[in-house]
Design goal:
There is one protein chain. The chain has one domain: Cytochrome P450 (Cytochrome p450, Orthogonal Bundle), CATH 1.10.630.10. The strands form 4 sheets. It has a 5-stranded mixed sheet with strand order 1-2-8-5-3. A 3-stranded antiparallel sheet has the order 4-12-9. Helix 7 packs antiparallel against helix 8, helix 8 runs antiparallel to helix 12 and helix 13 packs across helix 15. It is an alpha+beta fold and about 375 residues long. The chain starts with 8 loop residues before the first helix and ends in a 5-residue tail after the last strand. It contains 17 helices and 12 strands.
Length: about 375
């Protein structure tokens, strides 16, 4: 018997940390029958995977990503991946549409959302972080005419199937409906694309095919809303439960960026990157057969004791290099700059509006999920306790 034989998705959804810590310590490359894949849980081994696409291909079969979204930039290797990245990356850089959005529009959207929350207390996730993240991406892409709630609905539907490691047919059906509805909207949007500064119009002008645009925008929506949404919620939760961090950031506001990086590292909203062995090989002394799926667990490697000192501690002075919350190597998230700005501005505007913000003691904060992990809700009160 191996440790992986006892691992199930339910445990990973509820409390992944002790399971992953045991795998790191005793079985860092572990076959998990319930998921029909290897879990790789140490930093150096996942880095090796990403540095060797000739051994560990992103073009997997089967592929949760391709099934849910269609073939996209994360389901291919260079040089095809490089071609798509060259087309898709520019709108998400500081010099592209995202930079103009952050400079001119992000603060306004955040403030408008805060204008409409209950001034005594509210659920930070549903009432603020979720529409801010969905609305930011909608605006950059050029889909804001469809509303922030519809953007979130597409994200939620697609993510249900992306995290469907055990092939639940109900979750697959939810994903299929979101995939079809979003596909129809995108087809119309591509037809009407012009010389505006939206990302979708950029993709059309740069020669991406309609299928490439549809599939990769599905990818952007499934990955580009959850992470900043959960990032906002978790940064606020950390600040309100660790007052020494709040004091440090208040005294030196530039530390907010370091805090955000540490929260992303410790809590890693996105869980895995999945590859396929292209031949019989060994990884960390473990034999892997050609064709088997191999999942690098980002959440685990960000807490790898052999790579990080005091890995579960949020250390504002940490200088141990970049984390893997936005993945590694060629397949690193192209929207990471925008996501970071959404979290920073979202948190700063919230605390500026409600300096006495505190957690509502009547509602515990519960983190949930494996592939996408974040708070179900973060209920806050806006005044200091009497």
């Amino acid at each position: 018997m191996t440790l992986g034989a006892d691992v199930n998705l339910g445990d990973l959804e509820r409390h992944p940390e002790p399971v992953l810590a045991q795998l790191r310590a005793e079985e860092p490359v572990s076959w998990v029958p319930a998921m029909e894949m290897w879990l790789v849980t140490r930093w150096d081994d996942v880095v090796y995977m990403e540095e060797h696409p000739e051994l560990f291909s992103a073009a997997t079969e089967p592929s949760f990503l391709a099934r849910t979204l269609g073939d996209n930039m994360l389901t291919c290797d260079p040089p095809e991946h490089t071609r798509l990245q060259t087309i898709l990356q520019p709108p998400f850089t500081p010099g592209g549409r995202s930079g103009r959005f952050v400079a001119d529009e992000l603060v306004t959207i955040a403030d408008q959302l805060l204008d409409h929350v209950d001034p005594t207390g509210f659920d930070l996730m549903a009432d603020y972080a979720q529409p801010l993240s969905a609305g930011s991406l909608a605006t950059v892409l050029g889909l804001d005419a469809h509303g922030f709630d519809r953007m979130w609905g597409w994200c939620e539907g697609l993510c249900a199937d992306l995290a469907n490691f055990e092939n639940d047919p109900e979750l697959a059906a939810i994903g299929a409906r979101a995939k079809a509805d979003l596909g129809a909207v995108l087809a119309q949007r591509i037809e009407s694309a012009g010389d505006d500064d939206s990302a979708i119009s950029w993709f059309v002008q740069e020669g991406a095919t309609p299928e490439e645009i549809v599939n990769n925008v599905r990818l952007m929506i499934s990955g580009g809303i959850n992470e900043p949404r959960d990032g906002i919620g978790m940064v606020i939760w950390v600040l309100l439960t660790q007052p020494e961090l709040r004091t440090a950031v208040d005294a030196e506001p530039t530390k907010m960026r370091r805090l955000i990086e540490e929260v992303f590292r410790v809590y890693s909203p996105v869980g895995t990157v999945t590859r396929q062995a292209t031949r019989d090989l060994e990884l960390a002394g473990t034999a892997i057969a050609e064709g088997e799926l191999v999942s690098g667990v980002l959440r685990s490697i960000n807490l790898d004791e052999s790579h990080w000192s005091n890995p579960t501690e949020i250390d504002l002075a940490r200088r141990e290099g970049s984390h893997a919350a936005f993945a590694l190597g060629a397949h690193r998230c192209l929207g990471e700059w925008l996501g970071r700005q959404e979290v920073r501005v979202g948190v700063e505007r919230l605390l500026a509006r409600f300096p006495d913000l505190r957690l509502d003691p009547a509602h515990a904060v519960e983190l949930h999920g494996f592939e996408f992990r974040g708070p179900r809700a973060v209920h806050v009160l806006t005044s200091a306790p009497e």
